[in-house]
Amino acid sequence: MAAIKFSTLANSTVIMTAIVYGFLLSLGEAAGGFGLLLRLLITLSLFRYGYSVLRNVANGWTHFPPPDIDSTNPFSEFTVVMHSVLFGTLLYMLATTPFVEPALRWPLLALVAAIWPASAAIMAMTRSAGAALSLGGIASLVSDLGVDYAKLLGVSLLLSAFTALTSDVPWYLGVFAEMASVWASLALFLATGATLRAHRFELDLMQGLDDAEQRAEEEQRAQWQKTLDRAYASVRSGLPAQAYRTVKELLDSEGDSLEIYQWTFNGMLSWDEPRHAAMLGERFAQRLWTAGRKHDALELAQRCRKLSPSFVPPAAFTTELASYARELGRHRLADDLTELAAANRPTSP
To answer: Which residues contact 3 (CB under 8 A, 6 or more apart)?
Structure first.
């Protein structure tokens, strides 16, 4: 399935939560009447956490915290809890009540089961009961997800079958059945979040969502800026060699990618003296040339020549630039680079 991978359903945090909650639910059942309160608190916490899991996965998070002690508060996030209680009660009543004709019961059961993931998705993302129970909003989301929603329903069916199979085990394996049931419940939230994530660019529901990829990129840029600030501090302290070593470490840390070269060059242009950016430009231009971006390399070389007279690439590379400039009909630039190459060429002893 394109939007749902097994690795998503095998999330380590969810698995550990299922183990702990399954054990607590079994403990509550073994405690008889005194364990009813524990089972109620754990079940409500499970409902509440499921929506958090859905939102985190839709948000792009692969690592997120387990439920905390506040999640067992029966009065917190009341709307979210009631949404789960409503659908859980409907599904249970339609599956077990003898007062509804089978010809009506099974279509209604299928309908409620089919709209549950979409309604849960809307509730998780909006925290609005009105939006989550709006048939128009649910239909719109299902339409936007298209085939992937059908795949999500397939996952839901498989998880339900898995839960049914694991529930029919001897009493001494009951704790494992509880763990499997908790995991299956949370796995559906995982799968729903992954489906939303795959359609994040086309869903109005995802507008304003705190995107993990954007956050990661911003954090990366912040780390780059700290390193470049250290290099600039070295320059201001009269230690240019140390500054260049710091810049080289930054470039090496990102695998000498063109992106890090461009970002660093732009950052160094704001330093007091443009010659520092021009010195990086020597290496940057060669990197562009090696990557096949000859025109960009030539433009950068011309720009660096204007920035600083100390821009002196290796003679062999400058000669290649001059030849390319002449091919493009830029003879004046070619002559300038040829002259630069000749002045920079080592003389024989």
So the answer is: 148, 151, 152, 194, 195, 197, 198, 199
243 class by beta-carbon count within 10 Å (0-12 exposed, 13-18 middle, 19+ buried): buried
The dihedrals phi and psi of 272, each to the nearest 5 degrees, come to -60, -40
Q: Is 309 left (phi over 0), alpha (psi -120 to 50) or beta?
A: alpha
47-96 pLDDT, tens digit each: 899 999 998 888 878 778 888 777 777 677 788 889 988 998 888 888 88
Instruction: Specify the DSSP element, H or E, that contains 19.
Output: helix 12-30
pTM for the model: 0.61
End-to-end CA distance of the chain: 69
How many H-runs (helices) and E-runs (strands) does the chain carry? 16, 0
Query: CA-to-CA distance for 342 and 122, rounded, in angstroms?
Result: 69
pLDDT digits (tens, 9 = 90+) for 151-208: 999 999 999 888 888 877 776 788 999 999 999 999 999 999 999 988 887 787 665 4
Backbone angles phi, psi at 3, to 5 degrees: -90, -20
